[in-house]
């Protein structure tokens, strides 16, 4: 008997919230790289309380329309049908993070911003999850900007700038963080890899994150 058809999952972290997912994975990777070298600077670069991040300003009706647009985009890709690029503003990305179940790990931890042609965000990450004793009860509160590119289904994400309390991280730390692709885990995830194979490119243009399909009309 044929297998029952399944409705394609919207997959916030793979499509609608791809930008937010990249930021979170990237920042968590950066935390691992930098905090092992910041034991003596713990009080300068971490806080005892999380930062209060802005909330999405997307009205319920606009959010519902956005979810339909994202689902239609993914459905067309899965069916191999031509579809126009998916363009998402920072407000829409934040709205998806709050609306989608898959966005729960990002809530209260990141607020996406797109400014001056760059993708960035305010972050507040609980460092207990790293399992490092001297960082228990501490939070990484700051702001970061990133460079994103996609080449033949391979996603490359690099830290451009990372500031904590308005000051950039030490040069040796930033040099190490900038040196490697922090989206490598996304490329190794089978579901994400399949999703990325449907795209010709990912870019930031005119204040939006743009996902360009291979068969874009």
Summed up:
With 217 residues, this protein is α+β, with helices and mostly antiparallel strands.
Structure, described:
- The protein has 7 helices and 8 strands.
- By secondary structure, it is an alpha+beta fold.
- The longest helix has 20 residues, at 60-79.
- The chain is globular and about 55 Å long.
- Mean pLDDT is 80; it is low at 1-10.
Question: Topology of this protein?
Answer:
Layout: H1 18-35, H2 42-45, H3 60-79, E1 86-89, H4 90-99, E2 110-115, E3 118-126, E4 139-151, E5 154-164, E6 167-168, H5 171-178, H6 184-188, H7 190-197, E7 199-205, E8 208-213
Keywords:
single chain; 217 residues; alpha+beta; five-stranded antiparallel beta sheet; three-stranded antiparallel beta sheet; 7 helices; 34% helix
């Amino acid at each position: 008997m044929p297998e029952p058809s399944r409705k394609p999952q919207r997959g916030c972290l793979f499509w609608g919230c791809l930008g937010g997912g990249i930021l979170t994975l990237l920042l968590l990777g950066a935390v691992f790289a930098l905090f092992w070298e910041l034991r003596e600077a713990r009080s300068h670069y971490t806080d005892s309380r999380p930062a209060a991040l802005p909330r999405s300003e997307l009205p319920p009706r606009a959010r519902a329309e956005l979810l339909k647009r994202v689902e239609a985009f993914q459905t067309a890709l899965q069916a191999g049908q031509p579809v126009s690029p998916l363009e998402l503003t920072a407000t829409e990305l934040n709205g998806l993070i709050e609306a989608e179940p898959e966005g729960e790990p990002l809530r209260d931890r990141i607020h996406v911003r797109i400014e001056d042609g760059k993708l960035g965000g305010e972050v507040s990450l609980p460092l207990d999850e790293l399992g490092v004793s001297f960082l228990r009860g501490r939070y990484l509160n700051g702001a970061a900007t990133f460079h994103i590119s996609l080449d033949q289904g391979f996603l490359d994400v690099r830290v451009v700038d990372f500031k904590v309390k308005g000051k950039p991280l030490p040069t040796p730390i930033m040099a190490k963080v900038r040196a490697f692709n922090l989206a490598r885990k996304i490329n190794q995830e089978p579901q994400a890899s399949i999703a990325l194979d449907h795209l010709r490119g990912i870019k930031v243009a005119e204040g939006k994150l743009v996902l360009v399909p291979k068969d874009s009309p």
